Amino acid sequence: MGTDLHAPLGRDRAARLRRSRRTSIGVIFGMLVGAGVLGFSFYAMRSDPALQKTEMASNVAPAASSEEDRTATAPSSAKVGVPRSGPNSGANVQRTQTDNGQVVTTYSPRQRDGDGPLIVEAQRIGQDPRMAATPNEDLVEETPEGRLPIIGPDGLRPMEQYARPWSGARGARIAIVVGGLGLSQTGTQNAIRTLPAQVTLAFAATGNSLPRWMQEARRNGHEILVQLPMEPFDYPSNNPGGSTLVTEANVKENIANLHEAMGKITNYTGVMNYLGGRFLSDADALEPVLRDIAGRGLLFLDDGSSAQSLSEKIAKPLQLPHGFADLTLDAQLDKQEILKKLDELERIAQRKGFAIGSASAFDESIDAIQQWVGEVSNRGIEIVGVSAVVDDPAHP
After folding, report:
1. How many CB atoms lie under 10 A from the CB of residue 158?
2. Which of 151, 268, 274, 374, CA to CA, is 20 to 30 A from 177?
3. Residue pair 294/315 in contact by the 8 Å Cβ criterion
4. Element at 96 (helix H, strand E)
5. What is the pTM of this model?
6. Among 315, 297, 313, 305, which residue's Cα sits nearest to residue 357?
7. What is the DSSP letter of 391?
């Protein structure tokens, strides 16, 4: 009849063969997936040295005799934890200081050191509040005078990294700077814990327990400055303290005293004079100091107490961000008089768009500023960190 009896058997065998192949492929695929999961689990469970360091740093605290010692000696996360980097970092940075105090910076590319995880910090203005008391390790250099601020490999300036962010709105802006912190423990504590976070705090380089107070101020959201003791006209009968910058000293001596003052703390946006009428009026003495400050990516705030100051004139050719206080708020140490000065500061800000007021950490000043800041926001005034109102050539 011409019928092929082997045909059904052939078709059945082919079907079984196809099912067998599909089963084999499924088994092999399952084995590959299982191996991948096992490999990933092994990777996740392996001992990564950087992750071990992070865990050790969070669970083991160094022995310290007091709260202040614990605060001052706490290791920075950049040293013991996962390394951090800016978005464009990756350079060898060599700085050479010439005889006249000028700092020459040379950049060359480099490969990243080590392996393992890396945190890339993209934020350029301000810090994450959780890290505000910890310096960006790319912005400090170790020196005999302490840890000094520098411009980062990617061009990030300490002025930007440690600035207090603001809204960027077009309304009038006011910066209030309260100085003298560190000279009195009770006054410093009152200022840090009472004043609104928008107020900038300036720490006297001759003060005490500065690392402790700096960390508390930064955690509370304050932008901070370092107050540099400078020679007044009636020096030495009116003496700002040790390591004062004086006109009779040579450039090397004044730069050394500048670095000693700057090395007392970290995480500040700039330097502010403490007294200094005579020093600020001497171009030969002042220029090398401002040049060094400019080369480190900081701002300079003149407290406005000396009409003969040359700081603004010298700052411009150096491309140094510069501010000049419009008013001293507490020349009369009376709360009502200080409130009147604050109202005058508001009128200045309304007229020219911004204003800077300076005060000292007296109880009367702190009480008046706290009250006034709480009221002025309802009138369309924004209180900002001083870095938001200085004349910055990098951002005209």
Report:
1. 26
2. 151
3. yes
4. strand 91-97
5. 0.71
6. 305
7. B
Give me the DSSP letters along 197-218.
Answer: TTSEEEEETT-SSHHHHHHHHH
Tokens 């109202």 correspond to: 343
Residue 221 class from Cβ within 10 Å (0-12 exposed, 13-18 middle, 19+ buried)? Answer: middle
Q: What share of the chain is helix, strand, coil (3-state, %, to 5)?
A: 40, 20, 40
pLDDT tens digits, one per residue of 45-59: 333 333 333 333 333
For the chain, the residue count is 396
Tokens 């911004």 belong to residue:
354
Rounded to 5°, angle at Cα 151 from 320 and 54: 145
Q: What are phi and psi of 104, to 5 degrees?
A: -100, 125
Under a CB-based contact definition with an 8 Å cutoff, are residues 54 and 79 in contact?
A: no
Helix (H) or strand (E) holding 226: strand 224-230
Predicted confidence band at 130 (pLDDT cuts at 50, 70, 90)? confident
Distance CA 246, CA 249 (A): 6
Distance of alpha carbon 255 from alpha carbon 245, whole angstroms = 8
Residues 6 or more apart in contact with residue 203 via CB below 8 angstroms:
181, 182, 210, 213, 214, 224, 225, 226, 227, 264, 265, 268
Strands 322-324, 354-360: parallel, antiparallel or unpaired by DSSP?
unpaired
Q: How far apart are the first and last CA of the chain?
A: 101
Residue type, 297: G
Q: Classify the phi-psi angles of 276: left when phi > 0, otherwise alpha if psi is within -120 to 50, otherwise beta.
A: left
Tens of pLDDT, residues 7-48: 443 445 444 445 545 544 444 444 444 444 334 333 333 333
Please give the Cα distance from 210 to 222 (Å, whole number): 15
Cβ neighbours for 102, distance < 8 A, ≥ 6 positions apart: 288, 291, 292, 295
Q: Is 245 helix (H, G, I), strand (E, B) or coil?
A: strand
What are the angstrom distances between the C-alpha of 279 and each of 130, 134, 273, 275, 283? 39, 33, 10, 9, 8
